[in-house]
Amino acid sequence: MGSANDEFTPLSQLTVGMNKCRVRVRISRLWESFNPKNDISFGLDSLLIDDQGETMQVRVLPDDIDQFEDQLVEGRVYALSNFTIEDTRESYMTCSNELTMYFGGQMVVNEIEDTDLIPLYSFEFINFKDLRSRCDDVSVLTGRFFWN
Question: Where is the Replication protein A 70 kDa DNA-binding subunit B/D first OB fold domain (predicted)?
Fold first, then answer.
């Protein structure tokens, strides 16, 4: 008989178009993104981490924010299903994963028992000598992080 982990798909095994699976993840960070030119919301963004330490960015589109913003709490662990996986074609991503998860109206969010198997935070360090090469690269955020 399989373990309880068998019912969850690791983030590393998700592919474009996949939607018939469940993931167990921690919401490491949660924020609303705005266009700095006109202050219009891009949506609610989050960084997910699974028990293998893999990360993926999530986007809740502006029309769906009200449905999810009270359900999602930074630092908590969730079982998620009925999401959409797409290629990342955006700038200023918080991780180097080439896929992005999108939450929509059919998304199922269940808070589950916290587990020490899933880290609270994830960082992608680079060598100092490679930092200059990131100056004009806006695909993944690089630099300081400031708390409000």
Answer: 8-110
How do the domains of the chain map onto residue ranges? 4-134
Query: Residue with structure tokens 């990360």?
Result: 55
- Architecture per CATH, domain 4-134, reads as Beta Barrel (2.40)
Residue with tokens 């969010």: 109
Taking CA atoms, 59 is separated from 14, 16, 37, 133, in Å, by: 16, 15, 20, 27
Instruction: Tell me how far CA of residue 98 lies from CA of 15, 88, 125, 134, in angstroms.
Output: 10, 5, 17, 17
Phi-psi region of 39 (alpha: psi -120 to 50; beta: other; left: phi over 0): left
What's the pLDDT score for residue 2? 36
Question: Which amino acid does the sequence have at 132?
Answer: R
Mean pLDDT by 10 residues, the chain (148 residues): 64 86 93 85 90 89 88 94 81 66 86 86 68 58 49
Structure tokens at 53: 């330490």
23, β-bridge pairs: 80
Q: Two tokens at 45?
A: 């963004």
- Which residue in the block uniquely carries the two structure tokens 């662990």? 77
Residue 128 has phi, psi (to 5 degrees) of: -55, -40
